[in-house]
């Protein structure tokens, strides 16, 4: 562990390489969540008294005040995402491993989530959601400075997707912290039962810094709707946004940022760490499908906060994301169960639980971007696709992805991201996308091009895959050189509960 902390300190010291330098360090950094102050009231007519004209010209509109309903919904959504991770993901993964590794998985999820939350507060939020360049943010919110507005004597506000509507920035920061945390924890399933605890933490810290933060910035950072005050400033505001946002990529709640990003990191890790001892010769059956079912149920419930919370308001788009999350997961459960019945003659509890997660993954980028019919189709296709991902594709890749992170999150994320471009179309019941943020007007059915949007989605998927793969490869290699990635064969056979943590999940 001493080596781990030393390496983390070294990573922090060399962080923010020259390639990530801000394009204009002298200019004050504006956060993605900063709301531009409304313009001054127009001066009175020329005939008005000079004194009244001066007074009117100096007056400004009152500060925007967050709606308590929006704030309450976002706090609840944040809590739901925490529940998705601990206990949801921890129990889902824990039930899938052998009993001798149950606690090791729980420990990895809980500690990794905690570590990422701390790193998020220290520098993660700033580099993901403040103005820097197209690939990484700046230093305006390091250590969360500026969240409390001393001049105004209140908390800074964060933009939503509606003009003149804000939430407290501290709430937005907390909500996004849970996204970063669960994304890192998803990776753990790919190398479960054989990685060193310290190596897992060091890798996740590096990957979070150099993969999660840039991808989140590229996809989700923009200046907010209130920045688009007139046609003359549109190009300037667009140029300050993240690279993939500028491109027009749609990702409502994290198909690229969360699922594809994490899945690729897990796949690379599974290759580099190698197969578990006895893989292909011994049975690696889940030790408790009951716990896996409980974990899947908690994930499903928590996912409503994950997807519907990404609307950032308690409005119609939150409701759309909510029902789409419900129906897509249900459709994927049916699809996976039907697929198993056709392939194996029986539908399994493990399959139903996996199908629910597959549908949730697939609908994540689409949640508020497609109609209910589109969500149903995405759920069905996602369920079948992920079933193939954990069976046929896994064999083709020849990799020991322990808990099928790539098969579910990678395949499901890619399918969902691409189909978002299809079913966002108004012709297929989708809400379309904003074509002009000055007037907040939507692209019409006649102007919407499915082919063009799918191509944009495909480029976003490709960039995410390449970025995460390169960062992961370098990070795993560094960890292997400094700490070593894998426990010894003896420790692996004994089980990581005892060899890494000195305790057992079950006493005989």
List keywords for this structure.
mainly alpha; two-stranded antiparallel ribbon; 60% helix
Number of helices: 17
Portion of residues in beta strands equals under 5%
Assembly type of the shown chains? single chain
Mean pLDDT score: 90
Description:
Helix content is 60%, strand content 3%. With 508 residues, it is mainly α. It is built from 17 helices and 6 strands. The protein has a two-stranded antiparallel sheet. A two-stranded antiparallel sheet has the order 3-4. Strands 5-6 form a two-stranded antiparallel sheet. It starts with a helix and ends in a 7-residue tail after the last helix. The longest helix is centred in the C-terminal third of the chain and has 33 residues, at 450-482. Belongs to the ammonia transporter channel (TC 1.A.11.2) family. It holds the Pfam family Ammonium_transp. Residues 73-506 form the Ammonium transporter AmtB-like domain.
């Amino acid at each position: 562990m001493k080596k781990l902390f030393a390496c983390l300190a070294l990573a922090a010291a060399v962080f923010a390489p020259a390639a990530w330098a801000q394009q204009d360090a002298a200019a004050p950094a504006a956060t993605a969540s900063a709301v531009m102050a409304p313009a001054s009231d127009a001066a009175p007519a020329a005939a008005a008294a000079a004194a009244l004209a001066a007074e009117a010209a100096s007056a400004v509109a009152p500060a925007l005040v967050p709606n308590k309903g929006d704030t309450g919904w976002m706090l609840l959504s944040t809590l739901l995402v925490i529940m998705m991770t601990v206990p949801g993901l921890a129990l889902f993964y824990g039930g899938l491993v052998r009993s001798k590794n149950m606690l090791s998985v729980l420990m990895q999820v809980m500690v990794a989530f905690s570590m990422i939350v701390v790193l998020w507060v220290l520098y993660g939020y700033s580099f993901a959601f403040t103005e820097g360049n197209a690939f990484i943010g700046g230093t305006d919110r390091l250590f969360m400075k500026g969240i409390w507005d001393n001049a105004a004597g209140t908390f800074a506000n964060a933009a939503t997707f509606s003009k003149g509507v804000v939430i407290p920035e501290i709430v937005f920061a907390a909500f996004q912290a849970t996204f970063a945390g669960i994304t890192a924890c998803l990776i753990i399933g790919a190398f479960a039962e054989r990685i060193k605890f310290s190596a897992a933490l060091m890798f996740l810290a590096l990957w979070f810094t150099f993969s999660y933060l840039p991808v989140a910035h590229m996809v989700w950072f923009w200046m907010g709707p209130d920045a688009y005050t007139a046609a003359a400033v549109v190009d300037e505001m667009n140029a300050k946004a993240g690279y993939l946002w500028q491109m027009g990529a749609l990702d409502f709640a994290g198909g690229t940022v969360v699922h594809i990003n994490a899945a690729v990191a897990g796949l690379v890790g599974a290759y580099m760490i190698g197969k578990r001892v006895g893989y292909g010769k011994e049975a690696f059956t889940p030790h408790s499908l009951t716990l896996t079912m409980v974990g899947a149920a908690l994930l499903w419930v928590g996912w409503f906060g994950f997807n519907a919370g990404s609307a950032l308001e308690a409005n119609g788009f939150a409701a759309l994301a909510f029902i789409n999350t419900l129906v897509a997961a249900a459709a994927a459960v049916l699809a996976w169960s039907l697929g198993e019945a056709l392939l194996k003659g029986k539908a399994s509890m493990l399959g139903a639980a996996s199908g629910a997660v597959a549908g949730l993954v697939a609908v994540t980028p689409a949640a508020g971007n497609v109609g209910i019919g589109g969500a149903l189709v995405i759920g069905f296709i996602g369920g079948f696709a992920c079933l193939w991902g954990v069976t046929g594709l896994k064999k083709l890749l020849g990799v020991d992805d322990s808990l099928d992170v790539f098969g579910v999150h990678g395949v499901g994320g890619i399918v969902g991201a691409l189909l978002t471009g299809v079913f966002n179309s108004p012709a297929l019941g989708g809400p379309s996308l904003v074509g002009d943020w000055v007037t907040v007007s939507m692209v019409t059915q006649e102007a919407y091009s499915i082919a063009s949007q799918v191509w944009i989605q495909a480029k976003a998927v490709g960039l995410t895959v390449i970025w995460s793969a390169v960062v992961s490869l370098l990070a795993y290699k560094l960890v292997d050189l400094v700490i070593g990635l894998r426990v010894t064969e003896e420790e692996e056979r004994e089980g990581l509960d005892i060899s890494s943590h000195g305790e057992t999940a079950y006493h005989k």
